[in-house]
Amino acid sequence: MSRLAVNLPGLKLKNPVMPASGTFGFGENPKYDLNKLGAIVVKTTTKEARVGNPNPKIALMDNGVLNAVGLQNPGLERVIAEKLPALKKAYPTLPIIGSVGGASEQDYLDVAQKLSASGLVSALELNISCPNVKEGGMAFGTVPEVAQQLTKAVKAVSSVPVYVKLSPNVTDICAIAKAVEAGGADGLTMINTLMGMHLDLRTRKSVLGNLTGGFSGHGILPIAIRMIYQVAHVTSLPIIGVGGIEKPQDVLEMFLAGASAVQVGSAHFDNPVICPQLVEQLPALMDELQIDSLEQLHQEVLEAFKNEN
Ligand SMILES: Cc1cc2nc3c(=O)[nH]c(=O)nc-3n(C[C@H](O)[C@H](O)[C@H](O)COP(=O)(O)O)c2cc1C
């Protein structure tokens, strides 16, 4: 096995790097051969098409990105009929992770069932962490019992592994992680954006049409690391780490916190080829740090966590 390869439920990846949901569309108009990626996570899909929140939806800041896109997407029908088949046709061996959104439990179930039955995705990511929609989204990811129930229901209608994407906008991330593990999740993706706001001194108004948004980018890396580290100590679920990655060092730090794959989001705004660059740069850094393979590093990290207790 190659030194960058990683294995997670439903995902045999040649490297651990994938673009995060919402920051890479459905892989349209790529700037490089997407076969260089470990996998691709597509935009969160809802039952009906959504135009999203009022403009402006994105504010690029010095230290990160504030967004209130509001799950703008073409809707389940078009995603299954057009977006995913086009991606699959262009990249038949690239694992695709579908992202499931909804405003009610029934919405989530419809989207999860149809996406997994389409045969076009290797896994699902259950987005219970979007801070930018009024109903649903984060409301399902902040109360442990609700998160557990939704996970259980989605698992019952899904024929592929389900990764639950957690929100950092909670007081006890471990309680949510344990709840979705009890609900039968196959893995976790963490973290989504942190709720934030930016006011323009001249207009005296928010820079976003939605007023508040989700903050992401390099500044949230320590928060993601802390949460992944805590959760890796209380669940045995595989974790896909996301939040603030922009360098190969950040990828390995995610592994040290307990992750076994990573996603990259906001870094795309400055550098559209960030993912293949990370893949290219990882081996030299691993040489420097005497890391033979990522799988071995992950096993060593888990072993060290076990021996702490
Ligand atoms: C413009 C934008 C749109 C996003 N849309 C989604 C989305 O549709 N679904 C989702 O689960 N996360 C979405 N996210 C969150 C990212 O997938 C990721 O969890 C978050 O940005 C943290 O990673 P980063 O710091 O590398 O950006 C979005 C983030 C940004 C910046």
From TrEMBL:
Its cofactor is FMN. FMN binds at residues 21, 43-44, 127, 165, 191, 217, 243-244, 265-266. The keyword Cytoplasm applies. Pfam families: DHO_dh (PF01180). Its main location: cytoplasm. It is an enzyme of class 1 (oxidoreductase). Substrate binds at residues 43, 67-71, 127, 192-193. Pathway: Pyrimidine metabolism; UMP biosynthesis via de novo pathway. It is found in: Cytoplasm. Binds 1 FMN per subunit. Its EC number is 1.3.-.-. The active site is at residue 130. Residues 4-286 form the Dihydroorotate dehydrogenase catalytic domain. Catalyzes the conversion of dihydroorotate to orotate. Belongs to the dihydroorotate dehydrogenase family. Type 1 subfamily. This is Dihydroorotate dehydrogenase. It comes from Ligilactobacillus ruminis. The gene is pyrD.
